[in-house]
């Protein structure tokens, strides 16, 4: 029995792909992060950032938190901040899906929408200005070591345990890069042979949750030496794969997960054998007001 909703963060299922791979010598697993209570992989980082800051005394219930987000981190922060009775303002581009905005507000957060013309970079600039000029405190998922450490403590060990140490390749979309940094650090400690594959969008592609950052906005927690290979996917490929995952595998997820699995299949084409684990970042229901599944 769980005593708190927070006890349900992590230990998400891993399932085997049943239709997408044809090579019998390669196994593809999906790590279903939508089974976290907030609906995405970001629950892990949000909980570790807030809990660690509270434990250190960096924040308390009088602190006014602010964070820029493209969606999933904001939902996770809103949920966990509410549980700890913390005040938080979440800043996101105005073209974010209404499900995301409404979910954050349902958890009690203040949501500020910035111009879609400046994207998530503009939201980050707005939040940083509030920190500088108005005394707000930013957890800053892009530079906070508690982000990637959440995955070092949980995601990596779960993958190693659930594959019984047989994982050969880990594939993850790269946004704030916390998932891939922490999981890579843990898996490489278990075996230097494990290959870490990051996913980025092709030029001109817009895939929520996957970014190719301008140099000045590159997350400070990102260490390129922890990624063995980067595979690019297009918006069209990620969208088509999200639809295939739902129809063929019964895995209802967002576009970033479609990107992750697209990259995993591209990787599989280059292998004779292997055990690939791909992150399914979130659930598809927070994209229903978009055109993803039309």
From TrEMBL:
UniProt KW keywords = Amino-acid biosynthesis, Cysteine biosynthesis, Pyridoxal phosphate, Transferase
Name its GO BP terms in alphabetical order. Answer: cysteine biosynthetic process from serine
Report the NCBIfam families cross-referenced here: cysKM (TIGR01136), cysM (TIGR01138), PRK11761.1 (NF008735)
Residue ranges constituting the Tryptophan synthase beta chain-like PALP domain according to the UniProt record? 6-282
| Residues annotated to bind pyridoxal 5'-phosphate | 72, 175-179, 256
Top-level EC class as recorded in UniProt: transferase
* Organism for this UniProt entry: Aquimarina algicola
User: Pathway, according to UniProt?
Assistant: Amino-acid biosynthesis; L-cysteine biosynthesis; L-cysteine from L-serine: step 2/2
Phylogenetic lineage: Bacteria, Pseudomonadati, Bacteroidota, Flavobacteriia, Flavobacteriales
Q: What is its EC number?
A: 2.5.1.47
Q: Which cofactor does it need?
A: pyridoxal 5'-phosphate
Kindly list the positions at which N6-(pyridoxal phosphate)lysine occurs in this protein: 42
What the entry lists under Pfam families is as follows: PALP
Full protein name: Cysteine synthase
- Its gene name is cysM
For this protein, what reaction is catalysed? O-acetyl-L-serine + hydrogen sulfide = L-cysteine + acetate
- Family of the protein in this entry: Belongs to the cysteine synthase/cystathionine beta-synthase family.
Q: Which GO terms describe its molecular function?
A: cysteine synthase activity
